[in-house]
Write a structure and sequence with these properties.
By secondary structure, the chain is an alpha+beta fold. The protein has two domains: about 60 residues, no CATH class; about 240 residues, Jelly Rolls (Sandwich), CATH 2.60.120. It contains eleven helices and 15 strands. Strands 3-4-13-10-15-8-5 form a seven-stranded antiparallel beta sheet, with helices on one face. A four-stranded antiparallel beta sheet has the order 9-14-11-12, with no helix packed on it. The longest helix is centred in the middle third of the chain and has 22 residues. It is globular. The structure holds 2-oxoglutaric acid. 2-oxoglutaric acid binds next to β8, β14 and β15. InterPro entries: Alkb, AlkB-like, AlkB-like_sf, Oxoglu/Fe-dep_dioxygenase_dom. Belongs to the alkB family. This is Fe2OG dioxygenase domain-containing protein. Its cofactor is Fe(2+).
Length: about 400
């Protein structure tokens, strides 16, 4: 905000100039960041320059460039003030931050300007959930000792799957359900889809506030601003990629495993599908949380009336770092229960748990299995996929 003051206060700036010794360099205007590994596209550059010349008439600009200016200005203004701690998924309560905590590292992103005709032109930045290949450390063959250690770890992980839990009616946690090869496959697919059209972006609202995560939707796009599922993403005019068949298969298997667990808990005459109905996913929201990512308490209630009324479950896959997941009957964080979601875990909430308030309180950095990170180059953080049926 050092940059910002002189522009907001032209009178002050003039006075300073009048009283300073002539040799003192006067910071008349801020400069764009000095270290840039990619040239800024022309429109973004124009927008940046326009922001610096706030007081100049903007009528020469087309509306889509004006919108970029507004977005940039919003980040400068609000980045300083801080934001209310939470907003909803329908704007009021999703945890949001401004700034680039979740943005790709410098030099690892590509900036694209969306089509102004389709979307009103907010620039989107493609995000790669994996580090570039060149960052991959040279891998030596593991020693026998290391191999044994890894095998032991895997055996211990397998035991964890016996810790499956029925957290409450309709809410099942399957520990370490996704096997290593499935995890590698999911991360690979999400990476490929995520850097393509309709891939990861940092979603936000018209006032410039952003969610503190990167998001990609499969099947249809979910828009935080409108709370609607749509064919075309409003911010850049792209279509959501399809849900890979392999993902659907894993969802089906997870629901079957949950039914078995419900049966175990409730006895043989209990109709398991009444507690946890079946679901055929046609929507998936993929979130990537970096170390400081979070998501405020909210309900998932933008699916169709029939889907919600029938309590068709949300199936959630967790990969990478561990998260503290909150859930409860109200939006009050202090009254919420907390459960750790670790790499490979699948959480299912349907039936009478379909409308729980839930969110992600924090990510535990460095908790992802080393082997998975080495193999996939997944960035530090957590990948979450939530499948739903519209
Ligand atoms: O990341 C998670 O575990 C939860 C994601 C979520 O609540 C959502 O996408 O609606």
């Amino acid at each position: 905000m050092l940059l910002y003051l002189p522009l907001r206060s032209p009178v002050l700036a003039t006075r300073c100039r009048a009283f300073r010794a002539p040799t003192t360099p006067i910071p008349l205007r801020p400069r764009p960041p000095a270290r840039r590994s990619l040239p800024l596209p022309r429109q973004v550059k124009m927008a940046w320059e326009d922001m610096l010349h706030d007081h100049h008439p903007r009528s020469r600009q087309p509306p889509h460039v004006r919108q970029v200016v507004q977005t940039l200005k919003a980040s400068v203004h609000q980045g300083d003030k801080g934001l209310p701690p939470s907003f909803s998924k329908n704007k009021e309560h999703l945890q949001v931050v401004l700034g680039t905590g979740d943005s790709p590292a410098r030099g690892e992103c590509s900036t694209k300007i969306g089509s102004p005709d389709l979307c009103g032109s907010v620039p989107s930045v493609s995000f790669d959930i994996c580090l570039p290949q060149k960052a991959r450390p040279i891998k030596l063959n593991p020693s026998l000792l290391q191999q044994n250690r890894e095998k032991r770890k895997e055996r211990e992980q397998a035991k964890i799957s016996n810790q499956n839990m029925r957290l409450q009616p309709g809410m099942i946690l399957l520990k370490n359900f996704l096997k290593h090869n499935d995890q590698v496959e999911i991360i690979g697919q999400c990476q490929r889809l995520g850097v393509g059209s309709g891939g990861f972006y940092q979603p936000g609202y018209e006032d410039g506030a952003k969610l503190s995560l990167q998001m990609m939707c499969l099947g249809k796009n979910w828009d935080p601003q409108t709370s609607l599922y749509e064919d075309i993403r409003r911010v850049d005019g792209t279509k959501a990629p399809q849900i890979p068949l392999h993902f659907k298969k894993l969802v089906e298997e997870a629901i079957q495993a949950s039914h078995a667990l419900v049966q175990q808990h409730t006895g043989s005459s209990h109709p398991v599908k009444a507690e946890l109905p079946n679901m055929l996913p046609d929507l998936c929201i993929v979130n990537f949380y970096s170390n400081n990512g979070k998501l405020g308490l909210h309900q998932d209630k933008d699916e169709s009336r029939e889907s919600l009324d029938q309590g068709l479950p949300v199936v959630s896959f967790s990969l990478g770092d561990t998260a503290d997941f909150l859930y409860g009957d109200s939006r009050d964080v202090n009254k919420a229960n907390s459960v750790r979601l670790e790499n490979g875990d699948v959480l299912i909430f349907g039936g009478q748990s379909r409308h729980i308030f839930h969110g992600v309180l924090r990510i535990h950095p460095g908790t992802a299995p080393k082997r998975l990170v080495e193999e996939t180059l997944l960035r530090p953080g957590r990948l979450n996929l939530t499948f739903r049926q519209f």
